[in-house]
Amino acid sequence: MRSNLFFIMPNPVYRALTAALAIVLLTAEAWSDHEPLRPVQTFAAADQAVRIEVSPRRALDQLGVVLLDASGEEIRPIREVQRGEVDLRSIYPDLDELRRPAYLQLIEFGDPSGPAVVIQPLLSRLIPVLEPDTRPDGTVYRRVAGWRDEYAEDDEEDVERTFSGFRLFVDRDVRMETSEGMLRLSLRADQAPNTVWNFRQLVDQGFYDGLTFHRIVPLTAGGDPFVVQGGDPSGTGDGGPGYWLPLEPSELEHDFGVVGMARGEYADSAGSQFYIALSRAGTARLDGQYTTFAEVVEGWETILALADVPLDDPRRGLPVNPPTIKRAWLIPAPPRFPGEGRPDRRVEPEVEDEDLFPGRVPR
User: Fold this and answer.
1) Structural domain boundaries, residue 226
2) Is 191 exposed, middle or buried, given 0-12, 13-18 or 19+ CB atoms closer than 10 A?
C-alpha cells in the first residue's frame, strides 16, 4: 500500500487545477521525458555542495524529497524543498555517512514524481580475493572467495573505505530493440554502480546498436536453462570496448532475467559483453563470481525467443544466424514509491524451467 507521505494532501479541486496547468505548460512528449530532479553537477567532492535542481511539472506545488534504497525503505526522511537549486548537505547534514548508493525521489502532493536521482558515494575499491578451485570438468580456475579494500594490508579486516564524495545521475532504464522483440532493463545502481555507469555510457553512445547475441546456451550439460550473451563488437566472444572493467561486488542473485557482465578468466576482464540469465538453477553457481547489474522488467517472451534460435554448434553456443541488437537507448526510469520501490518487478516466464526449451538437447 502506498504511503501518504507529505504534509498536506490537496483537495480534488486543487489537484485538478494544477493538473490542468501542467497540461498547458508541457506537451505530452515533454511530460513523459521531464525530469523534475536533476543534478547540477555529476561529481561532488567530499567538501563540496551536492547541488540538485528541483523543477516540478506543476506550477503550484508542495514539494519534498526522500532518500530511499532499492526496496523503497527510507534511508533519510522526507524534507521540504522549494523549486530551484538545493544543496543536499543543507537538508541532510549527515549525507557523508552514506556508504551505499541511494535514490533521491521527489514527492509532489504526497506522490512520487519523475525518475529518482542516484546518489552514489565514491569509495575506495573493493578488490576480489581469489583462491584456486576446480570445476566439475576438472579444470582449475581462480574463484572469488571474498573482498578487501584496495588500501588494506593482506591481514587487515573491516578497514574503513576512503570516501571521496558523490557521483549523481538521473535514474534511467535501457530500452533494447532486438531482432526477436523488445526488452526493458532496470539498472541496479544500488548493487553495482560503476558497472551501471559503464553500461549507460556505452548505451548512450550507441555502442550496442547493430551488435549480436553471439553465444546462446539454452541448456547446461545438466539440462538447466543457462544464458544468452551479447555485446561483442567482433562477434567472436573475444571483443570489447577497448578497455577492461574492474569486477564489482553485487548481491543481486542470478535468476531468469538478471543481467550480468561477461568476463574471461582474469577477474577484471569485463568490458561490454553482457549476458541474460535463463534460470536460477542453471546460473546460481555464478553468484559472486560475475557482476550482476540489471534486471529485465519487460520482455520475457523476447528472452525466450533469443534463447530458442537455431544453433550451428550447441556445444559452443554458436547460433546459425545470431540475433541482433537493432538499437539500445536510455529512457527515464519510473518513480520510486516509499515502502515499495519501483512499481514493476523482474520478469518471470509463464512456464516452468523444464518446459522453457522443449526438444533442446543439453550441450
Assistant:
1) 171-355
2) buried
